Here is the input.
Amino acid sequence: MTERSWWGWGTTDHALTDAECVARAAALPGLPDRPRPVPRLADVVLPASRVAPPDGLPLSTDHDDRARHAYGKAYRDVVRALSGELPGAPDAVAHPADEDDVVRLLDWASSAGVVVVPFGGGSSVVGGVEYRGDRPWLSMDLTALDRVLEIDRVSRAARIQAGALGPVLEEQLRPHGLTLRHFPQSFEFSTLGGWLATRAGGHYATVLTHIDDLVESMRVVTPVGISESWRLPGSGAGPSPDRMFLGSEGTLGVITDAWVRLQDRPRFRASASVAFPDMSTAFGAVRAIAQAGLHPANCRLLDADEAANSGASTSGACVLVLGVESAVHPVESRLEELTGLARDSGGVVAPRREGARDTAADAWRTSFLRAPYGRDGLARMSAIVETFETACTWDRVDELYATVQDEVGAAVHEVTGVPGRVSCRFTHVYPDGPAPYFTVVGVGRPGSEVAMWDDVKTAAMEVLTRLQGTVTHHHAVGRDHRPGYDRQRPEPFAAALRAAKGALDPAGILNPGVLLDPV
Amino acid sequence: MTERSWWGWGTTDHALTDAECVARAAALPGLPDRPRPVPRLADVVLPASRVAPPDGLPLSTDHDDRARHAYGKAYRDVVRALSGELPGAPDAVAHPADEDDVVRLLDWASSAGVVVVPFGGGSSVVGGVEYRGDRPWLSMDLTALDRVLEIDRVSRAARIQAGALGPVLEEQLRPHGLTLRHFPQSFEFSTLGGWLATRAGGHYATVLTHIDDLVESMRVVTPVGISESWRLPGSGAGPSPDRMFLGSEGTLGVITDAWVRLQDRPRFRASASVAFPDMSTAFGAVRAIAQAGLHPANCRLLDADEAANSGASTSGACVLVLGVESAVHPVESRLEELTGLARDSGGVVAPRREGARDTAADAWRTSFLRAPYGRDGLARMSAIVETFETACTWDRVDELYATVQDEVGAAVHEVTGVPGRVSCRFTHVYPDGPAPYFTVVGVGRPGSEVAMWDDVKTAAMEVLTRLQGTVTHHHAVGRDHRPGYDRQRPEPFAAALRAAKGALDPAGILNPGVLLDPV
Here is the structure.
């Protein structure tokens, strides 16, 4: 059985070896010549726990357990973990076995004034599963609530517990020929509840982009009671209760299960790749596709840098990866319509044989899933490697793309002293605009990596908020995006959300600092 | 120029003549032999206004203006108006010319303790635009805010003022080759702001069913300030601000404008109709279509009664009307895929010639737009004619359909003493369930129509809430659906919404009694 990494992404067997770390850093002159060692988990220094767990509650103050729940998996979390000290570790870790445990834990925490931070797979890259205040706190690990409770084959829906990791829930659906087909990059290491709480972005590049649209109903334990919406395919009965909890990031309650919409397993699939000489031409093609109502399952645009790095192109071109799938009807004609639109917009469609998988698409996918391990290897070499993402309307995408390249590029240069890389892909596209995703790579200085990244991130947030791209399309707000989020959200909405939180969480114990200031 | 009816649906030129009323009532033995006369507007009795409009505010206490803003256009509103007395009429009608007027009106109303009910086209069928309390109140008519303010052709979006009626906004979009294509039955007599405030259901039977999905951003005047979200094609930044105002039905603020997603005008269209021997067989076909990912623009199922009454079928069959459209690509092959699925599920596809319009579809559409005028004619004959709608998952639709027929049918029989009609169609369908829409027709007793309908409606709400179909798919909650809505919404969500309202509307002036109890 593979072991989860306590300090980095995923499982330990996929982590880069020391030699791989060095090899990968070769493209970045000026880095140390060997990777920072990974501390032994047993040696990690934690503060003393301030919580004495009462009898009868599933609370642990075990050293390793606390260390594993200290942070998420952002670049800054990895760098901080590699230091061997986790000053922000939780005082205790709760392991509820069922919803009743969640209720009892919230009751106790509310009365004891102990902060509760829900923890699914722990893959947050925005500081969503840590706590940065002074109160005692517990991390509530929900992964024991991982069952598919009911399946409605007729309506193609299932009631699934929130703590189920992606593979765990898919494994239970497979015998029924069904799938949620929600595949964020974190799929293996994130949970349904985490996806719902953060409005995760998934497999589909169009239409069903966010988990939001896959939700029939949700069950949420709040400190004042359990909220359960009805299973409905659609409704117009007042503001949607589910939409208030979707994206609430643990501040309003703990999601315990949800009815979600499923798909039949696809029987027909086809993919193609299209090369473009530059991003501006590619933007036009992607826009034409997004506005044509053809709804491709995959529509990922890679700029030249991302295409080269993933192996999707060796010619310096930008590459658009298109995919269509269906459980019911052949999809070749639909793919032809899509590639036809791309060709009409100046693209060169790679030769393909009907039924064959596209090699650029495959190369990209492999690279995509391996990327976080590469990041961790580079982090051990003191490189700066992180991503940020947004969405904006088509009328602004040229300016946003250019300005990010300019200003974030300049910030990397200024902070590190040498030019870095700022590359871009689109993860999802809408009729009115794309969701661009940026990767930044630069040469860090050992011991200063987090502060350096913070400066770069500040520059990125400045561009996004100035051009009114969302501060996050699917990474969530957490603590790291708060400054930008506070500019983005309308103030009356913030006042309403604050009041709603006051009604549901009167003791203010739920993930304070996320979305709203602690009270 | 056609004149709007003050007492009934739409324009006066479409109202049934007395002879047409009598003819239409022929199928309902036991009704009076002549229609109730329509009172002259000038003769309508109103209570004295309790509001002395201050200088400088666009407030009217004109008799006719007050009478026209007393009620919406539900059956009960029509019957009440025909009585010639409007005891619930507003004390004044506000006619803001711009957003600044809205701000000043809310400031004054908050300080004066005057209730404000936003009024768009006034087509509410759920008591959403009246007031049933004891405080002085004003109806805020927003139809002067009817301009398309900006068009973004590249992103295919426009910023449109909330008071624009359907035809008014479409007329401004047409020169740009664009369309919102949101065509509720009330299209001519309802506004963008009303659609947003009530989560209206529109043209598309799948995917883009509710106006919710067409919204990029909204601007809302609340008593504590203006809330404006950013224009975004998609976002994961916290709970969606727009989703809190969508469906808020005037309780949280007054929507003044919104950026909405547009469509290119369709160049390719095709429609077909499919006959089924019974609804259960048809349910299977519609489900197969809804789950196939083909996204038809139209997918309306009519039961035998509706099919016969609309002229879509004369053979006693249930009829499914299918439509596909595109601005980009021919749609014949897609229609073939759809009719193929319907045929595989036991349907008989009506012969069609490529490119020709389907006659059943046309018959249904004409009947659909004329229906409310027919209702008003029957109301003048003291018939009971009203609709209610819901949505449920596929696993429950057979039971829900049968139970509604049984129990609502029994209620009509009991209330009226004779059997009535309870017919059904699907207005929208989702992969996990349909939105059934029911029409009830019965023999009323002059003077008792509203009370009789209330009893039938209570029976309908009882079925829906017991079987957990939503109390409304797109008619909104208003005041009439409150008892069912109070059962449907999770109590913690109600507490959160109440708190949010308290933060945005501290004086409690905004549409009190809708969604929440007045405070």
Summary: The longest strand of chain B covers residues 433-443. DSSP finds 15 helices and 18 strands in chain B.
